[in-house]
Specification:
Shape: elongated
Largest sheet: 5 strands, antiparallel
Number of helices: 3
Strand content: 25-35%
Oligomer: single chain
Order of helices and strands: HEEEHEEEEEEEH
Structural class: alpha+beta
CATH topology of the largest domain: Immunoglobulin-like
Helix content: 25-40%
CATH class of the largest domain: Mainly Beta
Number of strands: 10
Length: 193
């Protein structure tokens, strides 16, 4: 007696489902293994900045990923560059313009405080990939907005790299909360009623 098409369908369907389940479990196990290997490499890194690779940046583009994190008990603004640096990046000064929430924290007659810093890149490697970080400490006051970038070679205030918009402090506070960073410079708006 020949099996009917209906019987054939019912016998093949469980086999297909078992195969799909098998391949999904295998794929998930590979992803978990990759994540565990990455975490192990980060944990065994010789750089305190390696932890950034598990965090969400406050800004990211094709040049830099920018983070705010507590490093060695200090709140820092960090520019992270994957792979190699060019000469301009390596030698040019960064500009960091902070707009304080409270005007009494202004240091001069402008509406911002400039805490520009010289390029101070250090490098670390994770799983054969090179990462470069430049960083500066943040001052101890509430920050409403940030304007970030990097000057050009000549020291004449030509801008080589600039974020096209101001970074909002409330957005930064949300990201810091996601990253489990406790930095008091940025406050979320209380949205409870």
């Amino acid at each position: 007696m020949e099996p009917s098409k209906k019987q054939l369908k019912y016998s093949i369907l469980p086999i297909i489902l078992v195969l799909l389940l098998f391949f999904q479990i295998r794929k998930r196990n590979e992803q978990i293994e990759q994540r565990n290997n990455k975490q192990e490499a980060i944990n065994s890194s010789n750089s305190v900045y390696a932890k950034l690779l598990n965090q969400r940046s406050i800004y990211r583009d094709s040049v830099y990923s920018i983070y705010i994190a507590v490093i060695n008990d200090s709140a820092e603004l960090i520019f992270l560059k994957r792979d190699t640096l060019n000469n301009i990046q390596r030698q040019s000064k960064f500009f960091v313009h902070l707009y304080p929430k409270d005007k009494k924290d202004l240091l001069g007659k402008t509406n911002l405080n400039a805490i520009d810093f010289k390029s101070n890149f250090s490098s670390f490697t994770i799983n054969g990939r090179l990462f470069n970080v430049a960083h500066t400490k943040l001052p101890d006051y509430d920050i409403e907005k940030l304007n970030l970038g990097q000057y050009g070679f000549n020291g004449n205030n030509d801008v080589n790299y600039k974020i096209s918009h101001l970074i909002d402090g409330e957005k930064v506070a949300t990201i810091l909360k996601e990253n489990k960073e406790t930095i008091e410079n940025f406050k979320e708006i209380d949205k409870s009623f």
